[in-house]
Write a structure and sequence with these properties.
81% of the residues lie in helices and 0% in strands. It starts with 10 loop residues before the first helix and ends in a 7-residue tail after the last helix. The protein has one domain: MFS general substrate transporter like domains (Growth Hormone, Chain: A, Up-down Bundle). It is built from 16 helices and no strands. Helix 5 packs antiparallel against helix 8, helix 12 runs antiparallel to helix 13 and helix 12 runs parallel beside helix 14.
């Protein structure tokens, strides 16, 4: 395993790296969660349709995924810190620019740039973690990143709802730019040696895509991510139009989702050493399917709002808990068995996972009916159960 630090330096460098990685996860995810409560108001101000606004979520996911391997190669060649800072500045500047937009083309263009930066800081942060940990301990640290995700999932939506209801949607992007500057500033304060030069990466994709353990785990995490993104993509309009709730109320529900993700991440940290990453992947996939079935029941039975809202929330929370259980274990299981090239494998894993989520989110605007949409996420969750149930050729 490649060491980032001198053996004489122990906990402080690792703690700093973990803090930076957690900060990257927070701001990258907040680019969606702060944004969600503001979507209806933003659309009204810049004359953007609901499908365009959903597309703005989709393009973010897609363009966060597309450059992650390129970011990984930059981090391998020039070092983790320079690559992280470059991606972070891209994210900060795009977030600030989004506060000034006047029309839909500007929204979509800057969301692309913001996504490129978000994908970079997220994957480089994970590469830093992979440099330091492996096996069950890697899953534990990725679960810690999931706890950072909790802050973004719950806190971001709450902040977005309150800021939109009080100051206006533009200030949500200002808050995001300021928050994103923090991990960038922290990264500038640390010194990490340039990674050891490794063998040429030619054939890396072919090798990884031929690795059944890597591919199945990466795909499982990607499908789970796809389900969550498709729910997020639609939720703002379900709450605003279907349940007639104000943005700040929608934002407060983020506390529930954050609590669910925290519970899942805590469960992973406590149980992964005993159960193993693969077993926890299976558990997470089944839990996500149960949550999606609850959501689908709302539209299949056309429930009145008094029943529909709590059942929808329970389904959303259950699905979120399942994803918190599935995702860190899928990422750890995908790369832990690799003897060489583990850090670049993190990039390829992120490409598969975010790419699958991006493809699914592009289909979201076409699913205009809520029944069709809920059936689609349920089918995806069912497919994931099959993926994680396939026998593994290696032991955990």
């Amino acid at each position: 395993m490649r060491q980032l630090t001198d053996p004489k330096s122990t906990t402080a460098p690792r703690r700093d790296v973990v803090a930076i990685a957690c900060g990257a996860v927070i701001v990258a995810q907040m680019a969606t969660t702060i944004y969600l409560p503001s979507m209806p108001a933003l659309g009204a101000d810049i004359a953007a349709s609901e499908s365009t606004l959903q597309l703005s979520v989709a393009v973010f996911v897609v363009f966060a995924a597309l450059p992650v391997v390129a970011w990984g190669r930059v981090a391998e060649r020039f070092g983790r810190v320079p690559a992280f800072v470059a991606a972070g500045l891209c994210f900060v500047l795009a977030s600030a620019g989004l506060a000034l937009i006047q029309n839909a083309p500007e929204l979509l263009s800057l969301r692309v740039i913001q996504a490129i930066g978000a994908g970079g800081i997220a994957v480089i942060g994970r590469m830093m973690i992979k440099d330091l940990f492996t096996g069950a301990e890697l899953a534990r640290q990725l679960a810690l990143l999931s706890m950072a995700f909790v802050v973004a999932l719950g806190g971001g939506q709450v902040i977005g709802g309150i800021v939109t209801s009080t100051l206006g949607w533009r200030y949500g992007f200002v808050v995001l730019a300021v928050l994103a500057a923090v991990p960038v500033a922290l990264a500038l304060r640390i010194r990490l040696p340039r990674p050891e030069r490794t063998a040429r990466s030619a054939g890396t994709a072919r090798r990884l895509l031929g690795d059944r353990v890597f591919l199945a785990a990466a795909v499982a995490g990607g499908i789970g991510f796809a389900v969550i993104v498709m729910i997020q993509q639609k939720s703002a309009f379900i709450f605003a139009d279907g349940f007639r709730l104000a943005p700040w109320v929608f934002g407060l529900f983020g506390v529930l989702y954050g609590a669910a993700y925290l519970a899942g991440a805590t469960y992973v940290r406590r149980a992964v050493s005993r159960l193993g990453a693969r077993a926890m992947m299976r558990q997470g996939a089944w839990i996500m399917l149960a949550g999606c079935l609850l959501i689908t029941a709302v539209w299949v039975f056309d429930l009145p709002r008094a029943f529909a809202l709590p059942i929808f929330l329970i389904g959303y929370v259950t699905t979120t808990f399942g994803q918190a259980t599935l995702f860190p274990n899928s990422a750890a299981h995908a790369v832990s068995h690799l003897v060489a090239g583990g850090a670049m494998a993190v990039s390829w894993c992120a490409l598969i996972q975010q790419g699958l989520a991006g493809i699914a989110s592009l289909a979201g605007p076409a699913l205009t009916g809520l029944l069709a949409w809920s059936l689609a996420i349920t089918v995806l969750a069912a497919v994931n159960v099959v993926v994680v149930a396939a026998p593994s050729p290696t032991r955990e």
